[in-house]
Amino acid sequence: MIEFDQVQKSYQVGGRAIPALHATSMTIQAGEVFGIVGHSGAGKSTLVRLINLLERPSDGRIRVDGENITDYGADELRALRRKVGMIFQHFNLLSSKTVADNIAFPMKLAGNYSRAEITSRVAELLARVGLGDHADKYPSQLSGGQKQRVGIARALACRPAILLCDEATSALDPQTTQSVLKLLADINRELGLTIVLITHEMDVVRRVCDRVAVMDAGRVVEMGSVSDVFLHPQHPTTRDFVFESENIDRSEMQQDLAQAEGRILRLTFRGEATYKPLLGQVARDSGVDFSILSGRIDHIKDTPYGQLTLSLVGGDLGVAMSALEAAEVHVEVLR
Ligand SMILES: Nc1ncnc2c1ncn2[C@@H]1O[C@H](COP(=O)(O)OP(=O)(O)OP(=O)(O)O)[C@@H](O)[C@H]1O
Question: Which residue has the CA at smallest separation from atom 28 of ligand 1?
Fold first, then answer.
């Protein structure tokens, strides 16, 4: 478990303290995949780099598994870095070392592993990340996705409990992003590793995260389960991210809504309700006619969800809304 208690971070620039993270309190649970989303400069990297003390807080306390790490000295810091692995947007591999030597590097640095232990751990990790045939290659001979797999294997070498991912898929194409995210999700599930993942793409959050914090100008402005935050965004920044990830053009949407007749509702279905043939029944029972203005079915992690924007005319709207709500459909009246 990672706990932030009124943690604040300012950088000294030209003799002035510039705040990058305002006083923040939050808890990341052991074993969860926790996303941090925000625009450039929002403070995401600062927040994450405080967890392994790449940055020291200016104020407040950080606890990892109940231990206050805030004032750690050099020895404790080395132990913390073994416990908290990290992967980066640009991989940060050592170009003069082979794939196997890159993965072995943190174990050699730790100094308490035998040669046999290192050899067997490297082989195990190569297989785990699907690079069994690439042990003797150099980073320059690998694709971006393969480089990130090496980064992941290296971060896992000393069996950390926490993995920090700083824009780990931002330099990758969509298909490679998918496969790296799947690898991270598998690692989280199989090893029970806590993953803290920074991204500027809500889609990455939707695919792998359990909970998410949205950051804006050095503050966490919204935090919750991915399904709550994704399906019912409250803060304008969160809304922007969700609309962007769904390729929704807001002015086009407003025009479409302006032309539609009657009441306009947005329905959100989660889990099993997504697949039920509910609308026909509701229309028959309430006498309401509806037309579909927009709709999508997708997944948040493993849970299906659907969202439909409808215009409704005639009949008994109250009966229709009660029937939908009774079927655990979230109903939002847009007009
Ligand atoms: N070492 C530093 N010295 C001075 N200012 C810094 C330093 N690192 C970050 N900042 C500033 O702190 C603020 C937050 O930066 P941070 O890198 O945490 O944001 P971010 O959300 O991760 O952005 P990005 O997505 O661009 O990486 C920014 O205004 C940035 O310019």
Answer: 41
Distance separating alpha carbons of residues 333 and 59, to the nearest angstrom: 44
Q: Whose CA is nearest to atom 3 of ligand 1?
A: 11
Closest residue by CA, ligand 1 atom 4: 11
Q: Which residues contact 326 (CB under 8 A, 6 or more apart)?
A: none
Read off the amino acid at residue 173. Answer: D
Atom of ligand 1 nearest to the CA of 55: 1
pLDDT at 214: 97
User: Hey, what are 136's tokens?
Assistant: 């003797």
CB 137 within 8 A of CB 109: no
- pLDDT tens sequence across 265-276: 989 888 777 777
Give kind and range of the element (H or E) at residue 147.
Answer: helix 144-156
Q: Note the pLDDT tens digit of each residue in 59-79.
A: 999 999 999 999 999 889 988
Amino acid, res. 99 = V
List of domains in the chain: 2-244 (3.40.50.300), 257-333 (3.30.70.260)
Model confidence band, residue 315 (pLDDT cutoffs 50, 70, 90)? confident
pTM value?
0.89
- 190 CA from centroid of ligand 1 (Å): 33
d(CA 18, CA 15): 9
CA of 174 to the centre of ligand 1 (A): 26
Query: What's the pLDDT at 145?
Result: 95
Q: Is 41 close to ligand 1, i.e. is its CB under 6 Å away?
A: yes
Ligand 1 centroid from CA 13, angstroms = 12
40 touches ligand 1 (CB under 6 Å): yes
**pLDDT for 269:** 85
Query: Is 11 touching ligand 1 by the criterion CB < 6 Å?
Result: yes
Q: What is the ipTM of this complex?
A: 0.97
Distance CA 222, CA 235 (A): 7
Pocket test for ligand 1, best of 8, 44, 88 (most atoms within 8 A of CB): 44
